[in-house]
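Q: Structure tokens for this one, please.
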Amino acid sequence: SSRVVEIQAQMSERAVELLGLPEDRPCLLLDVGCGSGLSGDHISEEGHYWIGMDISPAMLDVAVEREVEGDLLLADMGHGIPFRPGTFDGCISISAVQWLCNADKKSHSPPKRLYRFFSTLYAALARGSRAVLQLYPENSEQLELITAQAMRAGFTGGVVVDYPNSSKAKKFFLCLFVGASGTLPKGLGTECAGEEIHQAKFTNERTRFRNVKGKSVKKSRDWILEKKERRRRQGKEVRADTKYTGRKRRPRF
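A: Here is the predicted structure, written as tokens:
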């Protein structure tokens, strides 16, 4: 539904923001549990490249049909991250890591699968990079299990909670550092009610400022032309630009 797509986009934007990526160059990111590629869409819009992995062939088929710009891999994250050491500049995951706490088969051991995932993810990330994993823990014990296995694998960092006093807007982000420990970002909505409004206003102003700096508004003609140019650089077939590119159609009655 459109509501789910909107929530997914918001969480993806927040996860990429928590990565603290450099603004002067594109980065290669890993999207764990990429599904139909909704998170990858935001990564591409930010000018970065990505590889997505997911355990569901059906979801990856949807991503292919949507013609996402990232590369896709069918894989179980509980078996580890199958990439060379230092491949990625960062990693995001939206609503996926908590599934490793389930024992879907007799051979599944949640602590072992979590440690396998985190240890191989640590190796696949470049030193000084981050992994931001949004998750829905069932309880505090599950969150402690996930965090403990991440720290055992070598990560530092912790949990960032956005809007902790809201039952609907509350979101958990496991923010992990590779190598030198960084400063854990502050969660949104952690101030008093009056300051929360100010923070939301600041977020909107930041988005407008970003557009002023040169990034095109989504779905505009410039945005469409930039996306088509990126796809050409990737060697994909793209229709030629015309005076009708990006023009809104008149409503039909």
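A few notes: The chain has seven helices and seven strands. The helical segments are 2-19, 38-45, 57-65, 110-124, 140-152, 193-212, 221-233.
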